[in-house]
Amino acid sequence: MATKTRETFLAKPVNHLYMLLVSAGALSFLGLVMVFSASSIHALDTRGTALAIVIRQFVFLLLALPLAAYLAKLSAQQWNAFGKLGFILSIAILMILLIPGVGRTVNGNTNWIDFKYFDVQPSEIAKFFMILWASHQLARREQSGKFDTHVLKLIAPAFCFILFLVMLGRDLGTASVIAVILAGLLFVSGIRLRVFGTICVIGAMIFAALVVTSSYRMQRFLVFLDPFAPEDYKDLGWQPAHSLLGLASGGLFGVGLGGSRQKWGNLPEAHTDFIFSVIGEELGLVGTLGVLVLIATLIYSIFRIGLRAQDPMTRYACAGIGVWIAVQSFLNIGSATSLLPVVGVTLPLVSYGGSALVATICALGFVAGAALRDPEVRREIVKKRQK
Fold it and tell me: Which GO biological-process labels does this protein carry (predicted)?
């Protein structure tokens, strides 16, 4: 009986929209709470008030929600028109970082624009723009029936140029996310598996070369194997080691909200890259599993909405957005649990970061709009309003 009920619930397209909104809302709310908890000590020490960082996150959330609501109302034709400009816009915002004195370097990566009162990370916005552009190109190919045009030639060169611009700022983490988005779009476009496998191997070789040719990256890459090693613990092993200590000390139900010990200077970037560790320490295994369930629900709903879309650009874009959120979550949680090297990417909707939050919520606005354009979803919503 329970299985039948679950199948009936998942079979209704309108429920995929509700799952998207509820999971995204829950992650955003949890993000505000945990950003405040994780950043309070750092904010008090550096800015004089414990609320300094969470207020910024809240302001960005307030800006993102009406923008996403507006984007959800755009038609497929309007998105296609915007998608044409995605590549050009991505180049424009990333080139700003190359202007002397404009790009700000954080932890060795020059990928921020300093506006004095807040910073903007153009690469986060470029992820969304490139997904829209590639989806537009793939949709044109599908609608024209010109399947002789190889998808690799169609979108890969543009992505490679964007990756080049990102790597000029030495941001390997963001470059990795963009590369996987490209791989995901190529896969859903129907590229031959042999070609896809070859591309993945070449990509892995390039990634390995970038790691091996940089002693700092090489050390960061290897230290995750044993962050507690005496020669690494007080240097590059400090972050992953204290991340694991925080997760281990949380137990089943955690030490309580606000009770993290690691955020007291032991865990740098506690409110950004390592917020998952603070969640594990304060909310325990139950809290971390809750986050995983919410992220899985969000990703599942994105792909289900995309599969029902009638417009090919919408299908491709939803796939790209789903891959984006999935790979970034995987990299962030993998870094926090020391299953992967520290790559310096945020946990979508949860970590502190105005650019990432606005870009992600706008992307989810696109997905919500795709659901609202579904005739069956609209009928169900009208029925509920009439009751």
Answer: cell division
